């Protein structure tokens, strides 16, 4: 009998947390909503890059972010941003991390020391294969964090806009 009471008490304690998490998820999805578009790139109400997924087709930048993530990031952060024993899941991190913080960490790296454990995120600010696509990485991980992009390769993608081709050539020095 006391076990049932303890479980009931625990459930009542966790119920507000569950509804709070649901509210946060809904707020995050609303905040990530694309409100403007410029040459195939989408932005939220705050002017941050975001994703656009319609009828299973992802925008080019989300697809590019998927490709870049699985080229340079998944070795440490796990498939589809879910994390590993080596590095945290970015799907969870992007639920609360803002755009500026993301850019700063990717460019400059980060070192966390605590609990007898040291985690080091190397700086990628000099790696053009990452640096030139940081917005794409952010957009992809944001879509994953909001549950808009499922695990795995997106089945359909928009064509690569000329603006993306031009930005890539400029950043890569071509």
UniProtKB/TrEMBL annotation:
Amino acid composition bias (Basic and acidic residues), ranges on this chain: 156-168
InterPro entries: C-typ_cyt_methanol_metab-rel, Cyt_c-like_dom, Cyt_c-like_dom_sf
The entry's keywords: Heme, Iron, Metal-binding, Signal
Chain ranges of the Cytochrome c domain: 64-127
Pfam families: Cytochrome_CBB3
Keyword ATP-binding on entry: no
UniProt KW Metal-binding keyword: yes
Signal peptide location: 1-25
Region (Disordered): 147-174
SUPFAM superfamilies: Cytochrome c
GO molecular function: electron transfer activity; heme binding; metal ion binding
Matches recorded under NCBIfam families: 4cys_cytochr
Protein name from the UniProt record: Methanol metabolism-related c-type cytochrome
Species of origin: Mesorhizobium tianshanense
